[in-house]
Design brief:
The chain is α+β, with helices and mostly antiparallel strands. The protein is built from five helices and five strands; from the N terminus they run αααααβββββ.
Length: about 190
Amino acid sequence: MFDALSNYVHSVWQSTLPTRLTHAILIAVVFEVLILLTRWQLRKALRRVLSQDLYRDATMRVLRRRVVLGVPLMLSQTILIVIALLVILRYLGFQVAAELLPVGLVLVVAALVIFRDMLADMAAGYFILYDDLFGVGERISVEQVTGQVMQMGLRRTRLLTNDGREVSLANRALKQVINHSRATETQKPIAP
């Protein structure tokens, strides 16, 4: 039995498998370097946007940085990892185009259709934080609702109205927002 196992290991080692595994490891290292360079470039590109919130309290600053920087970092890393896996599988001899790509495309399309509203809310929430439209504790008006922002998330924003009601608004519904807390003396309306 030991001889059979030894012969099998020797035949595998003499095949192209060790060379392919070595190349697969090198491909993984190259993609890891690409991920690090992408992270560095994204941090550099978003530094100006994130420096605008220095006047905010620490919790809002951490939330904004976590979302504004975290989402692009996660998306770019996921895309590069998927590409690296597909390249490595293809290099190891798997028919990626014929087997995995159609299934992956169907899954992506199904996820986009099923989670369309949630993805729209999350995209709107990301750009609310990216553009720094309002923060927790500020008074805003959205259509007929006016209140203080109690909580912000990627999907929903919660307001506490003047009469004590808590209103939860989907971020995709926040089309026109008036931020009363950031009005300066020159922006305040003139009383008649």
